[in-house]
Amino acid sequence: MDTEAMITDAAKSIFNYCRARTNSREDAEDLSQDIFLELLRARGNLREEGAFYGFMWAVAGNVYKGWLRKKGKFISAELDENIPASGALLPELLEKDEDLRRLHRELALLSERERKAVVAYYFDGARVAAIAKSQGISESMVKFLLFKSRKILKEGFSMERNYGERSFNPGMLKLGLIGEGWQNYLDPKVFERNLLGQNILLACYNDFCTAEEISLQLGVAVPYLEGELDELCRNGLLTRRGAKYETAIVIFTKNFVVEEQAKTAALQRELAEIITGFLDARLGEIKAVGFHSPGDGLLRWNITQIILEQSIVENPIMWDYLKENYDHSGRKLFVWGEEAGFYGCLTTRHNNAQGDELRFLEAFAGSFNDRVFDFGYFWKQQCRVDLMLGIAGGRDNFGEFEWLEIAELIKNGWVRQAHGGNREHMDDATHSFEAGMALCIPVYTAAQLAEVLSLAAPVIAAVAEKAREMLAISAEILKQHTPAAKKKEATECAFLRRHIIAMKRPIEIMQDSGALRRFTPNEHPMSYAFLK
Questions:
Q1: Rounded distance, CA 350 to CA 378, Å?
Q2: 377, 379, 381, 384 alpha-carbon torsion, rounded to 10°
Q3: What distance in Å separates the CA atoms of residue 401 and residue 375, rounded to the nearest whole number?
Q4: Among 171, 296, 346, 422, which is least packed, fewest CB within 10 Å?
Q5: Are residues 410 and 440 in contact, defined by beta-carbon separation less than 8 angstroms?
């Protein structure tokens, strides 16, 4: 086991950890150096390679706490240990503005119960009995809270507090949900606007953090954190153990994504070459099946879509990676975070009453053609779905309002005139077109699709195997970037990466090589109709 090499490989992660907890690059470098030295000194205590990251973060946490103590400065601001029934206002006991600022800073780090007792007693001049009555606790509990708070304040006065990098350079975290009941969960769109919640989860990912530690990392006073901490716990995104908090979901961190891409890039190229070779060799046989097709350029895209669907999305073997996972409310649900944002593919289907389907493989957050597909065009638009599938099945009799919708489908590149004529709008008098219509995407009957799948069976199996290899690598990397308590979920969560490492990136490779051509905004290369 080459521990020194593992420590060297983790250098960037350690520096990012330090940068988030210090207020300057110089301090981060000093703290990183201290952590590296301690890791080298203590490496003999590591017994197995799989425990390295847990060992590393434990050492980093201990060194960081010691570093904070070393940075402390003693400041005299004595507080009497006796607690009479009423006391002098605390601000009046402090002679310097600097002391008052430190007092305000330390008060902001107290828990809610402690802070309320101190403010009522020392700032508002309330008596112990009145505080006890207003808070619904005993007088002895009020005195205990005041005594405990004074000790914390006294300690804090002797420390130099440093806000972490997140106080001025907050991270970004997107929430992903898949499974049953996601509609009733925390809305990812709402969470997208919640920068405070995002950075709390990032701060608590590799550390158990107290509210005070989170406050210092984010530069946000504890009173403004408490409600958000409670909300995150209620939604199962954060767990609390005693006074400390830990992120409860797996996060695909930026460091993980960079390492994953580096270690799966060769397999991505191999996967792309397998599909390209099949298209070059067998496209003629596929066309001979006789289904409706818009031309070779878009057909290559569509067959790529079908291969990826069958090998990665529909293949039962691939779902071995996904075991039953329940959220805190008992619903089957996967919840995860993405620090680098969402970049991948989404498979969607829309069907009519007869069971016919429109099938899509769509990119989001940056697509193959430098634009995001509008996969919402058919979402909750059953009229459009029915019209598309009706035209695919040969329907040519439509009502007035249906013609208006068809005109929009033509305008957006989904429908064209099948025979003759070049009109792109309907006749205002007859509300009809001069010629029949056809879809601008492939249309398969059940028998035709079955024949195409039979031709593609060997390549589907080969692609599935490459994808499994990539997911196995991704799972191992994710384990190394995941806190000990979440390592068990790493294999299952790696399954969620299939749309990116095994689908989106190989398609981009095929585009770059010319195996798949560029397309225009009104073309829909990874869409087709299936007639049951």
A1: 7
A2: 50
A3: 23
A4: 422
A5: no
Nearest CA to 327 out of 472, 178, 223 is that of 178
Beta strands 333-338; 250-252: pairing state: parallel
DSSP helix/strand/coil, 210: strand
- CA Rg, the chain, in Å? 30
pTM of the model: 0.70
Using CA atoms, how far apart are residues 431 and 401, in angstroms rounded to an integer? 9
Per-residue pLDDT in tens (0 to 9) along the chain, 532 residues = 577 778 777 787 888 788 777 767 778 888 888 888 888 888 777 777 777 777 888 888 888 878 877 765 433 334 444 555 555 455 554 445 556 666 666 776 777 788 888 888 877 888 888 888 888 888 888 888 888 888 777 766 665 566 666 776 788 898 887 766 555 556 667 788 889 999 999 999 988 888 988 988 888 888 889 899 999 998 889 999 988 999 999 999 988 999 999 999 999 999 999 999 999 999 999 999 999 988 888 999 999 999 999 998 877 655 555 544 444 444 466 788 998 766 666 678 899 999 999 998 876 544 455 544 555 688 888 999 999 999 999 888 888 889 999 999 999 999 998 754 333 343 443 333 445 789 999 999 999 999 999 999 999 999 999 999 999 999 999 988 888 878 877 777 888 888 888 998 999 999 999 999 988 888 888 899 999 8
Pick from 470, 523, 462, 532: nearest CA to 499: 470
Q: The sheet that has 238-241: what strands, in order across it?
A: 209-210, 244-247, 238-241
Cβ neighbours, 10 Å, residue 455? 16
Residues in the chain: 532
Residue among 78, 76, 3 nearest 45 (CA): 3
Reading phi first (left if > 0) and then psi (alpha if -120 to 50, else beta), residue 100 is in alpha
